Amino acid sequence: MAEGRKSLASDEPPAAEHAVVELQDVGVDLKAAREAPANRSSSSFMPKPKVPMHLAFNDVCCYVPAMFQIPGFVSTVKKVAEACASRVSGKREVAPERQILHSITGVVNPGEVVAIMGPSGSGKTTFVSLLAGRNHARHTGEILYNDQHKPTDKAFKRQLGFVSQEDIMFEGLTVFETLYYTAVLRLPRAMTDKDKRERVSIILEVLGIAHVKDSIIGGFRVGRRGISGGEKKRVAIGQELLYNPSVILLDEPTSGLDSTTALNLIHTLHTLAQVGNRTIVTTIHQPSSRIYQMLDKLLLMGQGHLLFYGDASAATDYFATIGYTMPYGMNPADYFLDVASGWSGEPKEEAGNLNATDPELKALLGAIAEKPYSRQSSRQRDIELASSYASTKEVFGHKWRSVKQGEDGQEGGELLGPRYHTQVYVICIRSLKERRFERFSSDSLFTVFFMAILCGILWFQAGVGASLATYVGAGDVAALLFFLVTFLSFNILFSSIFTFPNEKNMLLKEREAGMYPISAFFFGRTMADIPLDTLIPVTVTTIIYVMTGLKPTVEAFLLTMMVVLITCFTAGSLGLLIGAAFLNLKRAQSVATILMLTIMLTGGFFVRDIPVWLSWISYLSYIQYAWDALINIHLKGRVPECQDNACDDSLLAQVKYDDVGVQFGILMLMLTVLRFAVYLSLRFGAKSR
């Protein structure tokens, strides 16, 4: 096996000392990169991490609830009742748990690529998520980075790259835009924009996706076909490689890739580990024999148990010593998966009393317990390296403090990310480009403009002076104004509730990476909403205003536009709040429908006499304030006063001609309160998740 790995190495790029140019600690010699020979690996020009990371995990066990509970109102009430009962009794009931990881132990040194293998359901994803700090299930044991418990500060998050099994990215952005905006939000502020673009170009070349850099990611939500699944996976990996983290954790990065592309990807990871002295751990499903030969260590799992951990080249010989001899010519990775699944071979010894459900796996665990793997050379090297890291702990501590504080004494130093206003600006621009397909789709535009023209036809010239001479005509104008604010409110609200449920995974991913605070995301998205939520209401209102002949003065037109826009912003804020609070599209739509219908029914148009015990709801209806303001703008002083109860049955009988500024001020107050509630919901929602 070692000979095979050696022969494969002959096909690799030149040795690191010949292939790597001198790199700055954080920057990169861009001139050398541009002038490099074509046959030189692009990954050689990636900057080295400032602090290499030594990863150790000892006796890691993980537990999950034994019974799955569907989230909902009933389960919530049940949890509250159980909590109250336990508080009254003074005894806390412990929910039954199921152990899914059993005493996983090992060491990963800088410069190594460790593959976690095992059949489906063996706990690979759970374990790598625990290493990355992305799995918050109850677990025991130790996970140490440089002999310290994993820190939670932003500086460390920027040194840890995690590629999830699910490709999380914005579907409306191009490949280059996806990587570029990630680079701007993650790379140090000391790097120029030119350097960041150059870094993106290098990543595109390294991962072989330069030919699709101008193609959109694509997906169901934007209604457009984009790049392939394999290309999406490489983009996701590229997002983490941009910052050149000290530790890279990947969950099945080769899924969906052809054998050649997968081989190139693993070769890139292997080069990044050796050249950059990085620690790389990846789960991998059925690698080819050529990929297996490139692995430094193998961690084999079966039903949450550790079956083997050591040099990948020694695994075949070890399993042969306990009775599991690999057939000649078979791919070692395929054979080990068969062994971990309890399918292949007969052990020499019978199993003891073990916590495994499959008899074959119990027999395998018994054989392993009877004759554990003696990886003397590998273990001795691990111990020596661990000792060297422990002996240089002060050096690493100094380097880590210098990374966080900066050699020049400035807080954050070279790892300090972009300034706050840059984060807000980038998130705003990214959101504008992402929502261009969603907000201005052909179906959406057709719907609103069709309704605007239909409304103009049905109320054609209803607002001219002659039509207002009668109470019936004035009532028609009042109905038109109510429909205007209601229709636009519905449109904005139901499009806004999709915002945060669709972006929740991206928000959580970027928050875990420490890319920006919640407030930057909130303000950036708010700024992006202004032009997107302004264009359609302004256009629709203008069409209806002209066709229906509403009050023909510039002042009335501008006041109408202001009221319509503030109403749309308020409706959009309510939609954002619902989406942020629930993050479940089906539930959010149900809640939005109930609230919108309630607001509409209490808006003063359909029901005049609301029961006293429900009258307070009308004060929360922003449609009522918007409608009152529009009636004051267009009907005040233009309709004759009612005499002798002549208009008791008219809509105008209950209209109060107040100052428009009062209604406008109330709408502004409601908008401010709703926006603040959206921020709080995002802030505390992100923490709870």
TrEMBL record:
The lineage of its organism: Eukaryota, Viridiplantae, Chlorophyta, Chloropicophyceae, Chloropicales. Residues 86-328 form the ABC transporter domain. Its main location: membrane. It is a multi-pass membrane protein. It is found in: Membrane. Keywords: ATP-binding, Membrane, Nucleotide-binding, Transmembrane, Transmembrane helix, Transport. GO terms for cellular component: membrane. InterPro entries: AAA+_ATPase, ABC2_TM, ABC_transporter-like_ATP-bd, ABC_transporter-like_CS, ABCG_dom, ABCG_transporters, P-loop_NTPase. It comes from the Eukaryota. PANTHER family: ABC TRANSPORTER G FAMILY (PTHR48041:SF125), ABC TRANSPORTER G FAMILY MEMBER 28 (PTHR48041). GO terms for molecular function: ABC-type transporter activity; ATP binding; ATP hydrolysis activity. This is G-family ABC transporter. Pfam families: ABC2_membrane, ABC2_membrane_7, ABC_tran. The chain crosses the membrane at residues 445-471, 477-500, 530-550, 556-583, 590-607, 660-682.
